[in-house]
Amino acid sequence: MKAILLNLIELQRIDNRIFELVELRGDLPFKVQNLQENIEKLTEENSEKSSRISELESELRGITSRMEDNTIKLKHYKDQLYLVTTNKEYDALLSEIDTMKNSVIESENKIIEFEQEKTELQELVKSNELKIESSSEDLKNSKEELSKSLSETEVEEKDLTKRRKGFISKIDANYLANYEKLKEARDGIAVSPISRSSCGSCYNFLPPQSIIEIKRNNNLINCPSCGVFLFWEEEEE
Fold first, then answer.
1. Among 125, 102, 8, which residue's Cα sits nearest to residue 56?
2. What is the CATH number of the domain that holds 119?
3. pLDDT tens digits for 44-74?
4. Considering only CA atoms, which of 189, 234, 232 is closest in space to residue 214?
5. What pTM does this model have?
6. What is the Cα–Cα distance from 125 to 59, expressed in whole angstroms?
7. Which domain holds residue 196?
8. What is the pLDDT of residues 192-228, one digit of tens each?
9. Residues 30 and 75 both lie in one domain
10. Which residues contact 117 (CB under 8 A, 6 or more apart)?
11. What residues contact residue 86 under an 8 Å CB cut-off, 6+ apart?
């Protein structure tokens, strides 16, 4: 049991140092990730908007072509008004003229509507492009900072990770699972020395008998308040 405790103590020290190294990088990893995700999102938005712009341009070409055809037909019908000889022919031409007029007006309104939508989309695409350009520059700088930070701690972190695997292999799976669970619940602390007759993690006072047992460093003893494994470290007293 003492060997397990010593291995857990060393594992906690390793994890503490790994946490310190991660803290040195600050929020750079999250910043890089957020910038990448933002760029991907803006790029996807621009792709969708560009596709819609292409659709609008195609529809505008079709509407414009039909409107031009109908405008020609309208002129032709108007010219024919002077050539008809019966009321029936005259009424039929007036009906065709009204139909062509309504069609031309409808086409003009559609053109205005689609052109407005196209302009708004183009402005949004341009705005997104500026955001992408700015975010890309930030991403480049953040990656350089992160790379520099990683290079400064890479060797030590690799060594710590290797040592961590070694200690994990020596610890029973049940105790290791308990350690990981405690570490997650207690902000990275699963094993703590006692401090001034109190738990070094939650700082709650410990019974005298518990302190005597903990100072022997022979058994796994959990804090009755927070549950972390406790041990005696003379230099901490």
1. 125
2. 1.10.287.620
3. 999 999 999 999 999 999 999 999 999 999 9
4. 232
5. 0.59
6. 20
7. 173-236
8. 999 888 999 999 999 999 999 999 888 899 999 999 9
9. yes
10. 52, 56
11. none
